Structure formats: structure tokens, C-alpha cells
Amino acid sequence: MTIAGPVNDADAGVIRGSLSACPACVAAPSAERLAQMAAPDHARLILSLPQAHCAACITTVEHAMMAVPGVTSARVNLTLKRVSVEGALDVTAATLISAAARAGYEAHELDPGLLSSTETDRQGRDLLMRLGVAFFSMMNVMLLSVAVWSGADGVTRDMFHWISAAIALPTVVFSGQPFFKSAWRSLRAGRLGMDVPISLALILASGISLFETWNSGHHAYFDAAVMLSFFLLLGRYLDHRTRAVARSAAEELAALEVPRATVLRDGAEVVVNISDVLVGDLVRVRPGGRMPVDGVIVEGASEVDRSLLTGESLPVYAGQGMPVSAGEVNLTGPLTLRVTAAGKDSSLHRMADLVAVAESARTKYTSLAERAASWYSPLVHILSFSAFGYWMWKTGGDVRFAVNISAAVLIITCPCALGLAVPAVVTSASGRLFRKGLLIKHGTALERLAEVDTVVFDKTGTLTMGAPEPTNLNDHPRMAFEVAMALAGASSHPLAMALTEGARAAGIRPARVEDLREVPGYGVEGLWKGARVRLGRAVWCGADALDVTATYLCTGEGRPRAFTFADRLRPGAETAVAAIKAQGLDIKLISGDAPGAVADLAGRLGIVDWTAGALPAEKATTVAGLMAGGAKVLMVGDGLNDTAALASAHVSISPASALDAARVASDIVLLGQDMAPIADALRISRQSTRRIRENFGISALYNVVAVPLALVGLATPLAAALAMSLSSITVSLNALRLR
Q1: CB 541 within 8 A of CB 555
Q2: Which residue has the higher pLDDT, 201 or 571?
Q3: Which residues of 549-559 are buried (b: 16+ CB within 10 A; e: fewer)?
Q4: 3-state DSSP assignment of residue 586
Q5: Residue of 578, 645, 579, 585 whose CA lies nearest to 453
Q6: How far apart are alpha carbons 82 and 49 in whole angstroms?
Q7: Which runs of E-coded beta strand occur in 353-472?
Q8: In the predicted model, is pLDDT for residue 253 greater than 70?
Q9: 20 to 30 Å CA-CA from 101: which of 74, 142, 535, 586?
């Protein structure tokens, strides 16, 4: 089925792959290569499954894949929404995609070579493991310390100290590895990183405690050392979780490139790697396949889904002489292309490069805590060594006393409160926003969101649902409706499906139409009461095209009838736009859709500043231009054509229904359909920034009061550890006020 009139912008995209290799493949890529060498007659294909959502999908898809001749194994990863298939070399992606379609699932091929290069979150698991060990040890050492504080003396006290040493020392060595390694790297590079004083504090606290225990001293600080390890690891883990972005959006886009193409050579079809395709080659693309290259159609007629690159929501006619781009999807008829660009020169690859540039620029952003840390470490060392020298002179060379004060200074100024100032607030705010339907992915997203003064929205799939709905069903007689329903039922075109659904909801039964056939690029025709009837493009049906999205019915009785369609607003869109306006922010609408559709939506939402027909690069350029002019831009989009703009904006949001590459490029994900939480996020982000500043104030006030006490010898290492913990707890409680 086809359309006449402008098309809408469906930035949702049709391919929703997910990039993360299986743990076994990542852990031992060499083993995988060895296995392939041992079995050269086997190949591995990976398909994305955007519609997979439950356990039943796993069984259905795996059975469908295993039913394909030559397939030896098929495993579905529901979290990543993809299936990994192994089989004989003659098993093609097209065959597997057809099998998935017969089972009722949309599937698209991904590049396994690029997928296997994605790293898993080893650092997060390592920090969590060390945090657990530190917590377990801290609880046990604290129990022993309570006995000492309660009055245990002599041999009993020494026994408790030695037991504490047996628990604490291995814990500090194991759990402190992230700090020790980082400190060593800093020292080798000739600088004092934030982890150098942390490492010194851990070593001194443990060393002094061991010395005191060996000499039957009254005080040992193993509890302080383990407590330090726990709180420091907690801050580090919170910081890691709020900062980590699992995968690069540029890698997401690159993996969507078709790895192989069917090339016509000497009249025969030959499947070759995309790197072997040359400019001027003839490439065959079957219905349902993605364009592997940029090219010009030399044979065939079809409809093409360009939502990946241009944002046009509905398919457009593609005939001889028309250019097509890599990443577009051929829908209804076979096409032969003459290659104009392939591989790194294709449109899809250039878009990935555009995103990579924007991402690299973003990584230069540093949080408030990191900026404060640039002067923290040298100052702490100066204070600690100055205290040691002063008290060595003052006490006439009492090393034990001087070292205790030096260690107390290091511990009491330990950057737990400073390190938690941002992550504690972000974690608390993230929990609040999560309950509202927003997932914060980046550690500095809230800080940047609070600075926003301009909000840029995409249209289809963002402000709208990206699905057409018939708007004038009541304007047609029942007879025309019945014939249109019969014709629409023979097509999988989005307009045909929307028309069929609308007719079914209205209780209409299809007329008896025979000899149904779909004409690629034009529509569906058949015989009704012996007369030829058609549903499709205006020119095919002899109708005058309207300036709206429509399909046309001609029955030979009277003038052709137009069935018009519009996109449905996403729930909460009007509320979100109104609330954002009330906060005094500028709002812009940038869409790849036709002017008529964009103007209509802008009018419905009260958006004055809008742009239609924008290509991906133009969206990114617009956002970059606003940023260059001093604006702090929030970009809200969902499609592949929004990815570069999402990555280059000051902060970005995408709905959960968005293409995976868009979700990865964004800082915040809208989990539900309701858009109202976006306005809440802007408000909460400003509250979060205030809490972050308050936490820095608390940390500064704490150091102003506590450091002098340690310098004059009024704080033992244990008291310093308790004071440090109290400052961390205070910061955390202040952050919890966001709840």
C-alpha cells in the first residue's frame, strides 16, 4: 500500500538492536575465534528483535530459527532483544529474517564483529564485590571494637586487637586496590591525585593500629581503616553507577550497518562483505531488507522506509533513477541499485562519525566534585606533613604522637563528603525521577539539566506516538468503507494497518473483493462486483493529492475518496509543553516531517518556533548553533536521525520506545509514554543543584571545623574516622531531602 501527500516523521526507526556482547564472548574473544577456525564451515549471525518482550518470545523465536535448514543453534537474549544464530555458511540473514517474520517477529541483521568489541561493566562488578567485603569486615571489626570501648583491658584487649587485625588488614589490602592502583599511577605520572591521600590514610591507619597492637597499646584503629575503605568504596561505586554509559552511540550506529550485500556479477547474485563492494557495482535488495549502500535505483519499484535517516514516518515511493541511502528499509518490491557510496563513505557511517565527534566533546565535561578535587589533594598533603613536622619539633621527636596527628589529619580530611556530594544527590534524585518514569543514565545529567534554558523537541515518536490514525472515517459511506477495508487487509503498509484497525473498531466487515494483489510503490487492487478497485497513491487512483497524509480509494463510482490520517499526541505532551513554558524556557520543534504536519502539531501544542523537513545533520547543526550562541539545550528525541543532536546537546532525553542508539546517546530515558515527567525533571534538577551546593557547603564547613581540631591534636585517628563518617552521613541525609 502506498500514500499520496506528505509523509510524517517517525524518528522511532525500525531497527532497535542492542549492543553488548555475551559475557563469554567478551571474556574470551580469542576462544571464539579459535572455535571458528576449528569449524570453518560454520558462520555466526546476529539479528535484532525489537518486538521480543517476554519468555514466550524466546521459545518462539528459537524454534523458528532452529527450523531453518543448516542452523545448529539459536539463542535469544531478551534483555538485549537479539538472537545469535550459528549454522552452515549457506544460512543467510535473509532466510533467518523470513523465518522470524513467519513467527510474527520483525528482525534485522547486526554486525557480530562490532558487537563483540563492546566491553561489559567489569569495573562496576569489581567495585561492588570489594564494597561487600569491606561492609562484612566493618561490621565484624566494629563488634570487636565495642568490646574494647566497653572496658576490655590487658590480654583481652590485645586479643580483640589481634583478631581485628586479622580481619582488617586483608580487607584493606583487597578492598583498597582501586585506590592504591590509582594512587600509584598518579605518583608514576608525577602528580598527586585524589587517591594518594586516601591511600596514605588507609596505610597509616592500618600501620599505626598494627604498631599499637604489637606494643599492647590502648588504641588501635582497625575499625577506622575498614570504615574508611567501606565509605570510600561506597562513594566510588555510586559515582561509577551514575556516570557509566554502557555503550557508545557511535558503535550502536556502526553495528546497524549491513555487513554483507548481494552483488550482481556476470548475471549471478553473489553475497560479499560490504568492504568488497565497489562504486558502480549493482546490488540487489529484496523486500524487507535494509539498503547496504548508498545508490541509485536502476531496476524495480518499491516503497522505502526512510525513518532512520530523514525522520519521514511513512514509506515513500522509490522507482528508477531515485537515490537511496544505507540504512533505509526496502518494503514491498525487489530493487537493483548502482552503488554510489559504500562502507565508510555511506550515509549511515557518516552519521556514526557525526555522533562520535559529539560524544568525544561531551567527555570533556567534568563534575563539580572533580573540579574541587584538583586543589584538594595537594592541600591535604601539605597540612598532614606540616602537622607531622610541627609536632615532631614540639614534642622533641615523639614519632608515635606526630604520626598519629598526621594520620588523623589525612583521615579527617578524607574526601568522602566531597566524593558523595554529587553522587548522593544524583542517586536520591534518580530514585525520585525513576518513580515518575525517568531513568538518569549520566552522573552529571541533573547538573546540566538545571542549566537548561532551551528545550528542543522532535515530533513523531516523541511528541506523538508515531502511529497513524484515520481521521475522516465518518465522512465515507459504509460501502466505500467495506471495500477499503478489504483492500487494506491485503497489505502490511502502516496506513493499511491503521485503516483496517479503525474499520474493525467501527464494526465494519470487509466487502468481498477478489483477485487481490499489491503493486509495489502504488497500492492494492482487486475485483469488486466485476470492477477493478484500487486503494493507494493519488496518481494511481486518479485523485488530486491532498496536503495531508492520505490514501485514496477508487471504485469507478464517482470521484475517488480520500482516507486521511494524523498522528496521535503522546500522553502528557500538552501538559509537558505548558509546564516547560511556565518555567520560562524557550521551546523549539525540529522535525523531518512535511511542513503541514509540523505546523498542525505546533499549533495544537502552542509552539511558535518550529522547523520542518530537517535532516539529521541539520538537527545537529541547529542544536550546535544554539549552543554556540550561549543557549543550554535540552534535546528530546527518539530516532536514529536525532542521535547526533542528542549527543551534541547540553543534555538529552529519549523515550524508552526510541531506537537503542538514541537511548544510548541520551542522558535520560523516559520509561513510560507520559511526557509530563520531563517538566518534573527540569524542576527537580534545579532542586538537585541546590542540594549539591549545600553538600559542598557542608563539606567545606566540616573541614573548617574538623581540620583545626586534628591539627592541634584533639582528634585521634579513630575520632577522625568517626567525624569523617558523620560528615558523609550528613551529606547523604541532605541528599535524601529530595525524596
Answers
A1: no
A2: 571
A3: bbbbbbbeeee
A4: strand
A5: 585
A6: 5
A7: 438-440, 454-457, 464-470
A8: no
A9: 535
Q: Which amino acid is at 526?
A: G
% of the chain at pLDDT higher than 90: 10
Cell 558462520 sits at which residue? 43
d(CA 262, CA 272): 6
* Residue 234 to residue 217: CA distance in whole angstroms: 31
Distance CA 590, CA 609 (A): 9
DSSP state of 683: H
**Residues 97-112 as b or e (16 or more Cβ within 10 Å = b):** bbbbeebebbbbbbbb
Residue pair 291/327 in contact by the 8 Å Cβ criterion:
yes
What's the grid cell of residue 726? 558523620
Going by pLDDT thresholds of 50, 70 and 90, the confidence category of residue 39 is: very low
Quick one: which of 497, 427, 411, 478 has its CA closest to 201? 411
Q: Helix, strand, coil % (nearest 5) of the chain? A: 50, 20, 30
Comparing 451 with 215, the larger pLDDT belongs to 451
Please, what are the domains in the chain? 21-117 (3.30.70.100), 122-243+365-424+688-736 (no CATH), 430-465+570-687 (3.40.50.1000), 474-566 (3.40.1110.10)
Q: Closest Cα partner for 136 from 239, 208, 233, 203?
A: 233
Distance CA 345, CA 444 (A): 34
Query: 278: which 3 cell numbers?
Result: 565497489
**Dihedral angle at the C-alpha atoms of 346, 348, 354, 360, nearest 10 degrees?**
-110
User: Running DSSP on this structure, what letter comes out for residue 570?
Assistant: P
At 636, the amino acid letter reads V
Locus of grid cell 493507494 = 536
Q: What phi and psi, each to the nearest 5 degrees, are found at residue 692?
A: -60, -45
Cell matching residue 141:
571489626
> Alpha-carbon distance 226 to 220, whole Å?
12
Three-state SS at 544: coil
**Amino acid, res. 575:** T
**How many other C-beta atoms can be found within 10 angstroms of the C-beta atom of residue 154?**
8
Residue given cell 549552543 in the structure block: 627
Instruction: Write the single-letter amino acid at 35.
Output: A
Task: Report the DSSP pairing between strands 260-265 and 71-77.
Answer: unpaired
Question: Which position has the grid cell 486518479?
Answer: 542
Q: Regarding beta strands 609-611 and 633-636, do their DSSP bridges make them parallel or antiparallel, or are they unpaired?
A: unpaired
Are 100 and 47 within 8 A, CB to CB? yes
CB 160 within 8 A of CB 152: yes
